[in-house]
Amino acid sequence: MSTQSIGQLLRVGWVVIIALFILTIIEFVAAIGLSGILQLAVLSILAVIKGTLIVQYFMHVGQIRKSITDLWWGILVPSEVEE
């Protein structure tokens, strides 16, 4: 379990929400102001950044990463040899 207090977790959540808001504004400006391959590149990069923030902080993938890693190592290298 995390050692962070609820206040710290809420603060991180609000920082991520504000970051997503700022990235959305940048995304809007890029969609209006840019064109061609540059527009596609900027919007793609922003989409990856926003998706990563959402998956990491709101879908809690970082918290289950260790469990998934342990599960796969248990499947690949079983601790008991079956006869």
What does this structure look like?
With 83 residues, the chain is mainly α. It has one domain. The protein is built from 3 helices and no strands. Helix 1 runs antiparallel to helix 2. The model has no long low-confidence stretch (mean pLDDT 86).
Keywords:
mainly alpha, 3 helices
Strand content: under 5%
Tally of separate helices: 3
Main pleated-sheet profile: none
**Which of globular, elongated, flat, extended, rod-shaped describes the shape?**
flat
By DSSP, the count of extended strands is: 0
| Helical residues, percent | over 70%
Helix/strand structural class: mainly alpha
The tally of domains stands at 1
Distance between the termini: 38 Å
- Rounded average pLDDT: 86
Low-confidence stretches: none
Our Rg estimate from Cα atoms comes to 20 Å
Give helix and strand order, one letter per element, not per position: HHH
Topology record:
Blueprint (H helix, E strand, L loop, with lengths): L5 H28 L2 H22 L3 H16 L7
Helix pairs in contact: 1-2
Quick gist of this model?
With 83 residues, this protein is mainly α. The protein has helices at residues 6-33, 36-57, 61-76. It contains three helices and no strands.
